[in-house]
Amino acid sequence: MPRPRKCRRVSRPPQVSYFKPRGIPWRDLTEVYLPVEGYEALRLADLKGLGHQEAAQRMGVSRHTFGRVLAEARRAVAEALVNGYALHINGGDYVMARPRRFAPGDEIPQPQPQEVSMEKIAISSEGPTMDDLVDPRFGRAAGFVIVDPQSMATSYLDNGASQARAQGAGIQAAETVARAGAKVVLTGFVGPKAFQALQAAGIQIGQDLGGVSVRQALERYLAGQVPMATAPNREAPGPR
Q1: 129 and 86 share a domain?
Q2: CA-CA distance, 190 to 4, in Å (whole number)?
């Protein structure tokens, strides 16, 4: 089984979570996802000017992990700037530090994290609502409804970038849901390459959910009625 990721400590949430190029309609934009822990790494290293060791301690991770998170964040920002993509700060593996006030002379302990949902669910969907049907094609799904099972808050990710690809749609879709912080995917069919990419990202996969609504798929999963797959259910070369 994939090794579970250690949650990164974040001191403050982003004040703005979405940036887009001026003059380009929303429907024509490709999105790049920057996880919240990547935003925090950029804030500590590039805005506050902290060294990697101090910044890693503040985030509760090793210096090596901090360096990797920072490098991935810088790459996401560069990709958005160079290619004219929208930048969406969302998801990730993090806990929010709980702010406290201290009197002069008090010993200030390490921040105590307050957990946020670490098990977001991505459901391939034909539309943006819970009542739309599950799109059985993982790689070429119209989009993904992202659900936080603790708060039941939802958001929608358009999958147009993957649909436009002649090859590698499943891998691109896997990267999209991973960047959104999903740890579970519910869908119909997943091809071998997409399955491997999802497993590499530590994402569990529930398959064979065609013909039901997004809401029904979620209810089945929460009721323990969706077994997690151990192998793809779509043989190559079907681009799923």
Answers
A1: no
A2: 22
Residues 175-185 have pLDDT tens digits of: 889 888 899 99
- Retrieve residue 112's tokens: 């105590």
- Token readout for 110 is 């390490």
pLDDT in tens, 125-157: 999 999 999 999 999 899 999 998 877 888 998
Alpha-carbon Rg for the chain, nearest whole angstrom, is 19
Does some domain include residue 142? yes
Strands (E), the chain: 8-10, 18-19, 31-34, 86-89, 94-97, 113-115, 120-125, 143-148, 153-158, 182-186, 204-206
Q: The domain spanning residue 153 has which CATH number?
A: 3.30.420.130
Range of the domain at 129: 120-222
Q: Name the domain count of the chain.
A: 2
What is the mean predicted confidence (pLDDT) over 102-112? 48
Q: Within this chain, do residues 18 and 91 fall inside the same structural domain, yes or no?
A: yes
Residue 143's DSSP bridge partners are 125, 158
Given 76, 103, 130, which residue is the final one in a domain? Answer: 103
Cα separation of 67 and 42, whole Å? 10
